[in-house]
Design goal:
This protein is of the alpha/beta class. It is built from 16 helices and 21 strands. It folds into three domains: 19-170, Alpha-D-Glucose-1,6-Bisphosphate, Chain A, domain 3, CATH 3.40.120.10; 189-392, Alpha-D-Glucose-1,6-Bisphosphate, Chain A, domain 3, CATH 3.40.120; 396-489, TATA-Binding Protein (2-Layer Sandwich). Strand 17 and strand 18 form a beta hairpin.
Amino acid sequence: MTEPTATPTPPIVFGTDGWRARIGEDYTFENVRRCAQGVADWLIESGTAGKGVVVGYDRRFASEHFAQAAAEVLLAHDIPVALAREAIPTQMTSYLVVEEGLACGVMITASHNPWTDNGFKVKSPTGSAADAAILSVIERSIRAHAADEPPVRPLADGEAAGLVSRPDPFPGYARYVARSLDLDRLRAADLRILVDPLYGSGAGWIPRLLAGGRIRVDEIHAERNPWFGGVNPEPIRPNVDEALARIAAGGYDLGLLLDGDADRAGAADETGTFIHQLQVMGLLMYYLLEHRGLRAPVVSTINETAMVGRLGARYGVDVHETAVGFKYVGPKMIETGAMMGGEESGGYGFGMHLPERDGIYADLLLLDLFVREREAGRAPVSAAVRHLHEIAGPSFYLRTDVHADRAGYPALKERLLRELGAHAPAAIAGVPVVRTDALDTRDGYKFWTEDGSWLLVRFSGTEPLVRVYAEAASAEQRDAFLAEGGRMVNGR
């Protein structure tokens, strides 16, 4: 009788923001342990294992159990582990790394991916996303030991040996935020805001940080729901339409939005109108320049708003562009001493805070901006948004996602990149293209028109889909650009 051939272990590759896969398919306890072994090997090789690792997790299905599996591999190498006592926002692993001087952080989360997925993120010693050099060491270890079972030390044994702590990051984080943001000023504001954490691990954090003052904070979708109500927990439309409808019904001055692991931010004005991610980037940059008087550089990704360049020119600050992903943005922020970095997906980091995305902090800065704009006579929130566009120019933006079959995804990517590289369009929707940028990561192309509008066709680093982005001077031009991008993807 012929023995069955073993199914090869699928490759574990860290994309723009960690490794993500479907639970029970590729995302298994065995593969999570392999990732943890890769982290252990990197720390041992770098001589920093003794500093310890924080392991956090979100509210996805079985995240706490996957986190324990990762911790038990680290413990098998006598690496101290600070294991979160409950689900926490991703950025709390960054905060604990920085505040406690730990070697790195591990976060079990798939961020905004579908509810069927989970993931594994690594934070560097600076608190930023692990860069390509670190991830290459971890991936090399995973490949080298693909057929091996990593050693495991039961959590109870690690606890008995004094290698396990169970931190609560909230008190320290509240103090950390207060070093760069006047929370009492926000608590005293005569405002009513609605917070939607989309059932994620950011639930309760903004209400607790603003408690005890005049401001009124209501929160929806605060309970744990690993199904996320049937939507991807990304703070964009239509996922946040229920929150927008509640605001539109009246009684609220502002809506603040978070994604499933609370490292991405979003907002809505007093009418329930969604403030898109590129507008949020412009608003936060304007806030730091105009209201905080900062003049340090800004880092933005290839898919961010053209308003960044216009604001940089207006206020005399340098702007640096990177590939998509905070594994590029964070290190560039540190290298340039940037005051902020941002990406299209709603992730924003700040030099005065953390060189990593923090949706909670970003939302609080937006609140501070609107409080200050109100004091300057630009209220309600919609008036402040209009003021941004008066000084930074228009931003009609939208992104569409073209989903692909997992098996056919590599062939689609190869075909599209070949066609766009060899036959870049001379015009988009009848508008001449003045510049074509091939992305450094070789996963897409960006086409510019003379008025600063652009179309970007790019392959996702975390899901089998093609993202088509457009920012234009009008909604009509934006929609025409998106339609043209869709035709490119579909080979028409």
